[in-house]
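in:
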């Protein structure tokens, strides 16, 4: 006799909000008149993401294993789900930025039209926009939230595909530079398929070693036989698959091209939300399933963290395109995040778990803010991404330059910004875990990376503007909200971070 699993709808409320909103968005595309779709889709997506954020807050303090043990509702999962939902709502607002000026819309009017055709040139100046991006992005947000809560490797793999497939599509929907955008989508799809294959093969090896894909069963097997060859190889392949998604070197090769080619709101969405989801899955896998056999994963993470920090910091120095520079910044920050992962321990997660979750929140807010500013500086072909185009920006738009400076200083980890607090937390966690050489490498990499952030600030304030320089647009209401929220949070989490750090610490003690 087959027994129905015990399912708590209240515990699943955050996921239900997002997936129901995504499904409604699909119905809107099918039945609503085209001229009414955009405001309806924006409203539906925002209701889904904000509803998910509120429901995670209401679930705080609860601890359940639901859906037959496949999903875990715990402190860390709820903190990360709230982070993804909040950052996802900000990304949706960036998607919604459009006006009567078609250049302000990041998305093509019709993705099915061949590039360079007469119809394509006609639609380039159309006020229409591809509204399918909203249900696709909402499905991706739902997959990310499921990814961080999965208590089962099979559910984790399904969530990986649910979050990945919509991203492959929306990466190719840029209104400008469409060939570059479609090339980015194809690269992301092909390399993402490799990541999925690594994860699935690792899943098969772990199942062969343990006879189960449940994280609790894997933990029991790791305690009994932590040095099993199949188990260790399976863990390595699972981690490699997740590191692809987290854009950690040396599994980062897709990141610069995809960040550059995708529509900038999509790049912001991937840089913030996908990073949180991937690291959430890494934390759950390493802590819940393999927390008692640290020797099997600590050397691997230790080495990869060093490689990622060095690759991101050094190659970031050579970039002349701002989006590619932020891509290598993302790779370096992935290495910094792994220093917090090293700070975890088997007893209670250590300060590393809380520090990593706090860093994910601060990095996500800062990154979305930086990309929001990038959407405002435009030339004839769309966004002005080359560094030379940002010369003298402060003389043309002092406020825009000041806000961008704030975000760049936060990414560099300058005191009184959220970036400094996040870096201090993960470095301290690594030192407390005895990994002070890793923290030393991270400090040196931070100093190197600070150079390419400061280079942009120097260009904006101390260089002469070009005579044919780009224009700085006035942000619409959606982008204004994003900039206000991210800038305020970047300052607040740098000056008075105590309450959020305490919240992350409480969530970290409530895992498993």
């Amino acid at each position: 006799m087959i027994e129905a699993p015990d399912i708590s709808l209240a515990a699943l409320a955050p996921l239900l909000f997002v997936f129901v909103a995504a499904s409604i968005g699909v119905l809107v595309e099918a039945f609503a008149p085209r001229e009414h779709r955009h405001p309806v889709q924006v409203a539906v997506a925002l209701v889904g993401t904000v509803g998910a954020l509120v429901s995670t807050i209401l679930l705080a303090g609860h601890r359940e294993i639901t859906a037959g043990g496949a999903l875990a509702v715990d402190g860390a999962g709820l903190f990360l789900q709230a982070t993804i939902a909040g950052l996802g709502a900000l990304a949706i607002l960036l998607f919604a930025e459009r006006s009567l000026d078609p250049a302000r819309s990041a998305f093509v009017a019709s993705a099915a039209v061949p590039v360079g055709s007469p119809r394509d040139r006609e639609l380039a100046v159309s006020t229409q926009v591809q509204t399918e991006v909203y249900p696709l992005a909402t499905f991706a947000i739902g997959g990310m939230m499921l990814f961080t809560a999965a208590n089962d490797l099979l559910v984790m793999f399904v969530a990986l595909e649910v979050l990945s497939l919509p991203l492959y599509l929306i990466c190719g929907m840029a209104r400008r530079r469409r060939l570059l955008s479609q090339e980015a989508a194809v690269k992301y799809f092909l390399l993402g398929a490799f990541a999925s294959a690594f994860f699935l093969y690792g899943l098969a090896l772990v199942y062969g070693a343990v006879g189960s894909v449940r994280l609790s069963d894997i933990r029991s097997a790791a305690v009994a036989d932590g040095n099993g060859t199949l188990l260790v190889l399976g863990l390595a392949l699972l981690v490699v698959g997740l590191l692809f998604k987290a854009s950690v070197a040396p599994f980062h090769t897709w990141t610069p091209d995809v960040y550059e080619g995708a529509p900038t709101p999509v790049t912001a969405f991937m840089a913030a939300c996908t990073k949180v989801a991937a690291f959430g899955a890494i934390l759950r896998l390493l802590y819940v399933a393999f927390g008692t056999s640290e020797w099997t994963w600590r050397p691997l993470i230790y080495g990869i963290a060093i490689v990622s920090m060095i690759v991101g910091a050094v190659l970031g120095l050579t970039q002349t395109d701002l989006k590619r520079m932020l891509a290598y910044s993302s790779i370096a920050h992935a290495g910094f995040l792994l220093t917090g992962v090293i700070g975890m321990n088997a007893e209670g997660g250590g300060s590393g778990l809380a520090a990593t979750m706090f860093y994910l929140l601060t990095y996500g807010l800062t990154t979305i803010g930086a990309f929001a500013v990038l959407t405002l500086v435009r030339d004839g072909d769309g966004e002005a991404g080359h560094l030379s185009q940002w010369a003298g920006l402060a003389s043309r738009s002092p406020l825009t330059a000041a806000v961008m400076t704030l975000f760049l200083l936060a990414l560099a980890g300058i005191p009184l910004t959220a970036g400094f607090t996040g870096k201090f937390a993960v470095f301290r966690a690594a030192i407390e875990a005895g990994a002070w050489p890793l923290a030393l490498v991270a400090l040196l990499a931070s100093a190197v990376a600070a150079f390419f952030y400061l280079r942009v600030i120097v260009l904006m304030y101390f260089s002469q503007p070009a005579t044919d320089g780009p224009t700085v647009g006035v942000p619409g209401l959606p982008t204004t909200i994003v900039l206000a929220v991210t800038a305020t949070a970047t300052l607040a989490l740098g000056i008075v971070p105590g309450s959020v750090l305490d919240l992350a610490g409480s969530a970290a003690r409530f895992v498993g």
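note: The chain has 20 helices and five strands.
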